[in-house]
């Protein structure tokens, strides 16, 4: 048999073996004033083999452009409309009729994201989430669309009270009874799935002194062993997803599927945004696509065929915040690629990015924890003070860092960072004052002291700095 024929047969076999693998989608954000028309965007998606997209509203131009394209779409009911959708079934019925029923099935709407990262929304919309989802579901039933379209809501990883190690993943205690139990019961009852937004970049950027870049980018590395279950993790994405699976398992919802509704890596950032670069963005997204499309589950759920939506289709020039926020796109507004990665199984055939390590579970004999991958070089500046230079020093939250960065850093410190955060839990001695700055300072300082006040251990991507006067928050003093 000729080599060319053999090659073709092997590739066909590989396609068949990937038939039950995961799926890649792309978020289509439009916080910009220089993007192509929706018709051109859909043409671009089709030319790249994009089979799924997620949008952040129900813009008629976008939904019309997607009509007949064969691209499956997830639409969003914005946080601002949660109150009305929860309180007025008539509003939910009208919203579904106008924004979903009017387009489906020519526009293949497969899911409705009710709100987005509601638990971190500063407007207090959490209590309206599940009632709004139930009313939207009833509207789908009314229009006989409930068999075709699922209802869910994307949560940020900060919805976890503990995310490290992955085996100890759990939801925030104060959210379990009022929100998560009814939410998960609704998802099970309707045959839906939990939507999760996961960004290893933010964990790495805030903690580059302790997280290996290779580990964050799916590149070859020794791996990290979870002391709770003996499984070895070769990338941060798997560890974060398995923390969610563990949180579900803790509430007896092992049967629920997870869809990653956002993940990505910026191709550009500010000077203090460690790791934001074109090369790293291409490595993260390229290796992630390969993992998902070749059937890579997670160590905890090796057969989980994940659907993952990359963020985002374009660089969006009107997004607020640091430079990275405007540089998560796969494409520039002129439709040229920011970097070249495949989005399909066929495209993987000629993709030569550095292969990722195996993500299959590999228990360690005796369950002994192994050392973590060699960490990236410590970050200097912004509190990178050595222990010898400051015998008595403390690490506190930088109030100018912004709520989002403080929350991400706090989640890391109390999760993967291993800080002792028991004192700032509800009812504990240092819970009051119940402010993000106070809680973050307790967590950052615990981490800083635990690391022996080593250089770079009070940085958290600019969210913290060192002080030499012992800080006090309410009745609690930070310990040295």
Describe this structure in words.
This protein has 14 helices and 17 strands. The chain is an alpha/beta fold and 480 residues long. A hairpin with a 7-residue loop joins strand 7 and strand 8 (170-171). Helix 5 packs across helix 6 and helix 13 (403-414) crosses helix 14 (436-450). The protein is globular, with a radius of gyration of 23 Å. Keywords: Cell membrane, Disulfide bond, Glycoprotein, Glycosidase, GPI-anchor, Hydrolase, Lipoprotein, Membrane, Plant defense, Signal.
* Strands, total number: 17
Mean residue pLDDT: 86
Intertermini distance: 73 Å
Model regions low in confidence, pLDDT < 50 over at least 5 residues: 1-19, 358-391
Number of helices: 14
Shape: globular
Estimated radius of gyration:
23 Å
Q: Structural class, from secondary structure content? A: alpha/beta
Question: What percent of the residues sit in helical stretches (DSSP H or I)?
Answer: 25-40%
User: Which sheet architecture does the biggest sheet show?
Assistant: 9 strands, parallel
Task: Please state roughly what percent of the residues sit in beta strands, choosing from under 5%, 5-15%, 15-25%, 25-35%, 35-45% or over 45%.
Answer: 5-15%
Please state how the strands of the largest beta sheet are arranged side by side: 5-4-3-2-1-13-12-9-6
Provide keyphrases for this structure.
disulfide bond; 14 helices; 480 residues; 32% helix; glycosidase; alpha/beta; glycoprotein; two-stranded antiparallel sheet; hydrolase
Topology:
Elements: H1 3-17, E1 23-28, H2 38-47, E2 52-55, H3 60-66, E3 72-77, H4 82-87, H5 89-101, E4 109-114, H6 129-142, E5 150-152, E6 154-156, E7 160-162, E8 170-171, H7 173-190, E9 194-197, H8 200-206, H9 213-216, E10 224-225, E11 232-233, H10 236-250, E12 258-263, H11 278-293, E13 307-310, H12 345-348, E14 394-397, H13 403-414, H14 436-450, E15 464-467, E16 472-473, E17 476-477
Parallel strand pairs: 1-2, 1-13, 2-3, 3-4, 4-5, 6-9, 9-12, 12-13
Antiparallel strand pairs: 7-8, 10-11, 14-15, 16-17
Helix pairs in contact: 5-6, 6-7, 13-14
